[in-house]
Amino acid sequence: MKEIADFIVLIILYVFILYKKWKAKGKDVLLVNTAMYIYLSFVLYFTLMPILTALPYIFNHPYTSMNVVPFIDVLSSRGDFIRQVVLNVVMTIPFGFLLPLVKKANVNMLKVVLYTFLLSLSIELLQPLINGFRSSDITDLITNVIGGFIGYLIYLIFKPLTTKILNYIKNS
Q1: What pTM did the predictor assign?
Q2: What number of helices (H) and strands (E) belong to the chain?
Q3: Percent of the chain with pLDDT over 90
């Protein structure tokens, strides 16, 4: 229930600022940008929320340093490491797919990997700051980047189809 304040802010931001801006650029831009916005909202929900209600307590808990040993859980068979690896890959596949659609021009594999890295790094650094029970892990960063890369490959495969669909939406 603490996440409600965060979702209210996200809805207000979308309705009063982003929707009008994106709609003015065309139905295709509105569709793709809205899909990315919804996706990123869910990423925030699963990784960082609640944010607003946690802000007053941000410095009231110790900051846990990032685990910098890649795949230590996998190597030592700790916890549900397979599930964590799969979820981290799956989480960023939509980002790798949607980013070239949002940016349109000059988005290549290197840029998708870089932006996925920056998104994941931001999440990993903020998690223990916002919530003292969360930790950050280099494995999450690596698997998120792999997910963004896979998403970009899927984008390349479906690029002709997405181009046709977006052109149809744009011209309808």
Answers
A1: 0.91
A2: 7, 0
A3: 66
